[in-house]
Amino acid sequence: APSPALQGRHVLVTAGGTREPLDPVRFLGNRSSGRQGTALAAAVAARGAQVTLVHAHVEQAVLDTLPGTVRVLEAGTAVDMERVVRQEARDADVVVMAAAVADMRPASVSATKLKKSLPQPEDGKPAGLTTVELVENPDILAGLVSDPPRPGQLLVGFAAETGDSHQDALAHGTAKARRKGAHLLAVNVVGESLGFGDVPNAVVVLDHQGHEVTRARGTKAQVAEALVDLVVQCLPAGGR
Length: 240
Ligand code: PMT
Known about the structure:
The protein is of the alpha/beta class. The longest helix is centred in the last third of the chain and has 15 residues, at about 165-180. The protein has 6 helices and 12 strands. Ligand PMT binds near residues 78, 159 and 160. Ligand PMT binds next to helix 1, helix 4 and strand 9. Keywords: Decarboxylase, Flavoprotein, FMN, Ligase, Lyase, Magnesium, Metal-binding, Multifunctional enzyme.
């Protein structure tokens, strides 16, 4: 059912895993399927918000589950996603970053397919596929926090964490919540049957100081509903 607090609001959601090219046929990627971000976009649209989904790699079948009212834009790499998100966030009341954005990308993209081994270049540096030099990608969420494209907008991040124990994984999430500084950070403690892909999810939502706000567990649609409930609570009254 529509939520009065979301009527006329603009919500920007990101989903999927970025793919950082290495050469014309290879990339560095991750296991994000885009299901959690897509479920969020659908849930918030069903409550009456105007939704834009910016996605990196997401299977077409997953995108096909979106209602026609969601505006869909593609951004395949972290650098592309930064550009599109900063542009679109200028008009957003809420930004939810469920995408798994690569922290690093290959320092250079070869115009031709890299070979298993190449003759040693004169500078002695290894070439070919045994050593890949990486450079840091922009941190899109941290940039939205430090330089918000629209004052007063609500910023929500995700973090997929692992650890020796649930406690240990959550501790990584707490440190990240403080470091990133988004209003809310939904920490997924990922495991073999939880988190990435066509599996259920479980999140602990923290505020920017790392304090627990709420927990949600279930299908990705159920987790999305719980997060939208929280967004509704956190939106300042008064609308646009
Ligand atoms: O896609 P699914 O298969 O459904 O799985 C969902 C998910 C587990 C991928 C998703 O729920 C999730 O947790 N996404 C974030 C994954 C992650 O580990 O993010 P991170 O810890 O690298 O980054 C934390 C936050 O900063 C995220 O909101 C991310 O979008 C953002 N970020 C990260 C790096 C970067 N360079 N720029 C960013 O904005």
